[in-house]
Write a structure and sequence with these properties.
The complex is a heterodimer of chains A (273) and B (225). In chain A, 50% of the residues lie in helices and 5% in strands. With 273 residues, chain A is mostly helical. A two-stranded antiparallel ribbon of chain A has the order 1-2. In chain A, strands 3-4 form a two-stranded antiparallel sheet. In chain A, helix 3 packs antiparallel against helix 6 and helix 4 packs antiparallel against helix 5 (211-227). Chain B has 225 residues and is mainly alpha-helical. Chain B has eight helices and no strands. In chain B, 77% of the residues lie in helices and 0% in strands. Chain B is globular, with a radius of gyration of 20 Å. The chains are: A mainly alpha (273), B mainly alpha (225).
Amino acid sequence: MFKMYPQWYPARQSIRLDPKGKSLKDEDVLQHLPVGTTATFYFRDLGAQISWVTVFLTEYAGPLLIYLMFYFRVPFIYVPKYDFTTSKHWVVHLACMCHSFHYVKRLLETLFVHRFSHGTMPLRNIFKNCTYYWGFAAWMAYYINHPLYTPPTYGEQQIRLALTVFLFCQIGNFSIHIALRNLRPPGSKTRKIPYPTKNPFTWIFLLVSCPNYTYELGSWLGFTLMTQCLPVAAFTLVGFIQMTVWAKGKHRSYLKEFRDYPTLRSPILPFIL
Amino acid sequence: MPSSLKARTSGTTELLYESFLSRWLVIAVGLVRAYLARGSYHGLYYSIEKPLKYFQTGALLEILHCAVGIVPSSVVLTGFQVMSRVFLTWAVTHSVREVQSEDSVLLFVVAWTVTEIIRYSFYTFSLLNHLPYLIKWARYTFFFVLYPMGVAGELLTIYAALPYVQKTGLYSITLPNNYNFSFDYHTFLILVMISYIPLFPQLYFHMIRQRKKVLGHVEEYSKVE
């Protein structure tokens, strides 16, 4: 196909037996398909594609750099007399470290940990995703690093609790990513039910299908508590809604694919959601 | 939407639309009477202020109707239009006293009134399966003038409100505060005005396309209704 029509590179092709049916997978073998002596295939152009890795790297590098621009109070953001000054509140420095750590972790996971099922996604996604991540990062960073920033009401107690929650959930999230990676041998696209391992942070699999999202929510709740900043709360809420949608979808696929899927598990919040 | 549910609700919906229709007629009549009484069109806003607020806010129900399927319009477009009207009515005209005597308010009130009278007549008659061609024609033709008229009135009103909003800091939050958040209503209103640039042409061309579909169709057969 690609040889006849070079503009439709393989990642862009969707081939199916029925125009309204699901696409065939790369691994499907012609002999095993339910066709007679002649087979009719339907082709669909999925549009310009871009690799998942590229999208993830771009959408995560943005917030990392943008936040730092606000942290260092680069000119044209705040009133000129504050250019290149630093905040007098130590929580602002802590927040910068946490935010940066979070996105560095995500970048490294993208490069070394995650095993993606699909190679590519539609090109327009990169614009949509980057607008979301970069936009919110700028909005949050503006207020946290603002000269008129107000530290949390309950001071050191609140910040300490928030940091504990944040770190706990970062480790948890990483543990889940590693556990999910180990489910899948390198280069394969098999799907298996994830189970708790020796790592206590994975024991949450007993109650939840997508604990990576659970921990992610926890991390951002921690960050919201740490900074006591409304835009951060908004970002946490929007992220939570999106992750819940994804978690419910994943939970449903698990249930469909595996007859013996544990019944105690909820998609994202134990017993609740 | 299941046809059984549609059958049961359509009687109530018709009544609802007739009541909406009559209310907009009330506004129209109110406007005409006040105009005749005063001899000028200044300050007419006050004569229809309350009904306008109630009916425009009641139009929020419309979004529900679209979502449930009683009305074949798109939820997004209808929701957007209702939201923008509720915004103009409450967040601009009601909130900023000084613009209430502006001519631009009258401009959009008249545009909305005429539009809604035609629209509710259209829906009511459609539900009764007895739609006069004139109403259908009016619904898909008058908008050519009414849309720009309404938009002009709305934009001019928002523009008139700007200096007062800036002076009083209406609906605005400044730093520093405990939630580390700020909101400038003045800037927000400017952004709203700018948003008309991409949005209004889309709605306008959508109606033009609908017109071709609905009215162009009838020319092929002889008038049935």
